[in-house]
Give the backbone structure.
Amino acid sequence: MKKFFIQTFGCQMNVYDGQRITNMLKINGWQQIEDMRNADLIIINTCAIREKASNKVFSALGRIRDSKKPEAIFGIVGCVARESGADAFRRIPDLNFVLGPQSYHKLLEILKNPDIKLLNIDLGGLEKFDELPQMVKSDTVAYIPVQEGCNHGCTYCIVPFTRGRELSRPFDDIIRDTIHAAATGAIEICFIGQNVNGYKFENYKLSDLIIKTAKLDTIKRIRFTSSYPTEMTDDLIDLFRTEAKLLPLLHLPIQSGSSDVLTRMNRSYSLDLYIEIIDKLRVARPEIKISSDFIVGFPGETDSDFNKTMDIVKKIKYICSYSFKYSPRPRTVAALMTDQIPENVKRERLKTIDSYLNGIQREFNESCIGKTFECLCEGPDRTGKHLLFRTPYMQQCIVEKPSEKILDLVNIKITAANKSSLRGEIVKI
Ligand code: SAH
Ligand code: F3S
C-alpha cells in the first residue's frame, strides 16, 4: 500500500480541505502515515494569511526535500499555492505539484503521471465539491462548507485573491452533505465559509440551513463561522432565541475598536453598529458569548486608535479571541499605505491586548466552576487516562476516564479552570 503524509496549516476551511484530500486518497487505496520520511506522497496544505505563515511553507519544503525518500512526490495545495503559482517551482525546483484551494481535487492526476509538474491554481469555484468522492465517515463534529471566497475586500486581506469572490453552494447539496454527516457519526454541525453568514442561494439564507439541520434528530448542536458583522441579519439573530440547538457562542470579528481604522480597513460598519448587533444578540440569547479576531498595528493606527480597541475588548468581554500583528500582503491596498507601523510598536500592542484577552478568558473559565454543561466528547487525550470534551462555549474540558462506556453528549460539572481549559466530573443521573 502506498503511503501519504499531509500537514495542514491555517483556517477551518483548510482543515476541511485537508479532510477531503485525506478521504480522496484513502478511497484510492492510499494509507495515511505520521512520519513524513516514509511517505511516497507528501502534501503541505498551506495558509497565506500572514507573511510569516507563507514564508514558513518554503522553509518547510526545503527541509522535506532533504529528508524525504528520493522517489517520493511532494507539493503544496491551498492558499500559498494560489499566491505563488509557478514561482513555487522556481523556489523549490524538485517540487511536483502546486494546486490552489479550489483545484486540489486534481491531485490524482500527478499520481498517474509523476513525471509531469502539475500546476493548477484556477479559481474553479464550486467544481471541487462535485468532483470529490463523498466522505466515508464523519467526525462527531462535521464541518460543512456553505460558501467559498469573500467579496468584502478588507484592505489588508489576501483571501479575496486566494479563494476568489463569494460563491454559495446549492442549498440541496449542503443539506445532502449534512444528512450524510449525521448518518455517519456527526452530532454537531459547524457550517463554515470565509463569509458564512453571507450565504445566499436562490431564496435560501444561512438561517434556512440551520432551521432545516435542526430538524435532524441525531444532530444536537449547531454553530457557524466566520461571520461578517453587517450580515448578522435579524432572521439569524432571532435563531439564537428560537433554536435551542444553536450554541450560545458567536465568532464575530471586529478587527479594531476605532471607527477610523475600520474605515481604512474597508470594514463596512461603525463601532456603534457593531455594538448594536451584539446588544440584539444578547436580547435574543442572554447567555450568548462572543469571540473575535483583532489586528493591531494596522497602517496609521495611533495610540488613541489602539486604546479604542482596548476599550471594546473591555466592553464586550470576548471569551476567546485571536489577535494578530498587521502583516502586509501582496496585492492588498493596505500594503501600499505609507504610514506602516514599526515592528516594535506592533509587538508591544499585541502583548498588551493578548494579556488582557487572556485575563478575560481565564475569568470566564473560572466563572464556570460549579456549573453543569452538556458537553460533547472528542475522545481520549494522549495519555488515554482522560476524556476530552467541548462545552457549549467550545472550552476544552478534561475528565477522568470512567470505566463504563459513556454517550457522546453528557452533563459535566466543572470543578476547576485555568486560562485554556476546564476540569470536570460526569454527572451521574
Ligand atoms: N472571514 C474570514 C477571515 C479570514 S482571515 C474567515 O475566518 O474565514 C482570519 C483573520 O486573520 C482575520 O479576521 C484577521 O483578523 C486576520 N488577518 C487577515 N489578514 C491579515 C493581515 N494581513 N495581517 C494580520 N492579520 C490578518
Ligand atoms: Fe478577508 Fe475581510 Fe473577507 S478579513 S476573508 S476580506 S471579510
